[in-house]
Amino acid sequence: MSENQDEKLETMLRSRRVEPASHDLASRIILKAQSLPQVQNISLWNAVRQLFAEFHLPKPGYVLASALVLGMMVGFSTAPENGQSGDASSTTAQSYLAGDEGLL
Amino acid sequence: MPAPWPEKDDHELLALVQDGSHPAFAELVKRHTERFYRLAFRYLQNKEAAEDVVQDAFLKLWEDPGKWQADRNTKFTTWFYRVVVNLCLDWQKRKRPVELNEEMPLADERETADQAMLRNEEQRVFEKEIAALPERQRTALNLCFDEGLSNQDAADAMGVKLKALQSLIMRAKTTLKERMKTYL
After folding, report:
1. Measured between CB atoms, does B80 come within 8 Å of chain A?
2. Of the candidates B97, B166, B93, B81, which has an alpha carbon nearest to the alpha carbon of residue B130?
3. What is the pTM (predicted TM-score) of this model?
4. Domain for residue B89, yes or no?
5. Which of B12, B16, B62, B96 is close enough to B24 for a disulfide, judged by CB 3.0 to 4.6 Å?
6. Residue A12: which of B18, B38, B126 has the nearest Cβ?
């Protein structure tokens, strides 16, 4: 009995009535899309290219900007080392002075 | 020579749609409108509403094709099923439930008037009971009993594991069997 019920339920689920769509549904969608603009999704690379295109910098300008950026990068990357050596030299000077105080 | 539109697969067409190709979009619409309409109709039981939802889904895709990302490793249809289901649910939340059509067309013209009337009534009650199921159970049924969609595809479309989907279907069937006792 239960198997029959299961089978009948399956049949009913598989044979659910669907009213046919209008024959021109697809063409209506296509037509409507023709009047709609697309959202422009700009990738990072395209955004950079557009930015460069906007400014129209001459070639020496790019060289100068690149040198500036490179210089800043080198400067930032070496800054902590200078700081450490500065600390080290002040420590040495302090110990030297402390030695002098000991003599006095 | 580039392949003609019907020979291109969905992902190739979508890449072209992302470049603004109207013919590629047209091919995609012609290829899939019918199946997504069937799904929407099963949810909404209303032709105009189902057509509106399908149109809305495709136009959203056209306007912002970047929403579809091929690298997600999901089939276009699986992803789009989810889009259509979400639009159907939104539609149902916004509008009051559609009254099921009392005058459903006859399923088979050879049936006698009495048989047809009984069958009509049975279908009407059945659709009403399906509409009363919890949302996820209804979605599982609508996706799984849509021709050509495997259980795994349906599970992917719902974003659940296969076992969870099977459990949803099982519960839906148990409920329906109970509520449709007099017709089974």
Report:
1. no
2. B97
3. 0.70
4. yes
5. B16
6. B126
Do A30 and B126 count as a contact with CB atoms less than 8 A apart?
no
Contact at CB, A33 and B34, closer than 8 angstroms: no
Q: Could you give the ipTM of this predicted complex?
A: 0.81
CATH number at residue B75: 1.10.1740.10
Q: Hey, is the C-beta of B62 within 8 angstroms of any chain A C-beta?
A: yes
Q: Answer yes or no: is B68 within a domain.
A: yes
Total domains in the fold of chain B:
1
Task: Please indicate whether, in this complex, the C-beta atoms of B29 and A26 are within 8 angstroms of each other.
Answer: yes
Which band of pLDDT confidence, cut at 50, 70 and 90, is reported for residue B94? Answer: confident
Residues of B in contact with A37 (CB under 8 A): 63
Surface-to-core class of residue B80, CB atoms within 10 Å of its CB (0-12 exposed, 13-18 middle, 19+ buried): buried
Instruction: Using a pLDDT cut of 70, give the percent of chain B over it.
Output: 87
Q: How many residues does chain A have?
A: 104
Q: Is B58 on the interface with A (CB under 8 A)?
A: yes
Q: Assess if residue B86 is contained within a domain.
A: yes
Residue-wise burial string across A3-14, b where 16 or more C-beta atoms lie within 10 A, e elsewhere: eebeeebeebbe
The whole-angstrom separation of Cα B66 and Cα B71 is: 12
Tokens of residue A53, six digits = 């295109």
Q: What domain range is B44 assigned to?
A: 1-99
Percent helix, strand, coil in chain A, to 5, is: 75, 0, 25
CB contact under 8 A, B107 and A17: yes
DSSP-derived secondary structure for B122-134: HHHHHHHHHHTS-
CB contact under 8 A, A17 and B126: no
